[in-house]
């Protein structure tokens, strides 16, 4: 019974001649490694267009606590600043661009 087993073994592990391969293009960078690139470009575009986010840190107001009219608001973030709102409103988050832009 060892005869047929040897034949099956030889058939399974027989090396077949492979066709010669021409020049194969190998990309320098795989596309799946660049999937993060659109997200980074989107963040850079948003920062350039709208500025960086800032959080209201402190404020001065007049009127009642329920309906304040803000006189001065200080925001902390990449470019911390204090503003005097013309409409009396200071949202909790604002986007500010740097002074040079």
Give an overview in words.
- This protein is an alpha+beta fold and 101 residues long.
- It is built from two helices and four strands, in the order ααββββ.
- The chain has helices at residues 2-12, 37-50; strands spanning 52-63, 68-77, 81-83, 93-96.
- A four-stranded antiparallel β-sheet has the order 3-2-1-4.
- The longest helix has 14 residues, at 37-50.
- The protein is rod-shaped.
- The model has no long low-confidence stretch (mean pLDDT 82).
Write the layout of secondary structure elements.
Elements: H1 2-12, H2 37-50, E1 52-63, E2 68-77, E3 81-83, E4 93-96
Antiparallel strand pairs: 1-2, 1-4, 2-3
Short key terms for the protein model shown above:
single chain; 101 residues; alpha+beta; four-stranded antiparallel beta sheet; 2 helices; 4 strands; 29% strand; rod-shaped
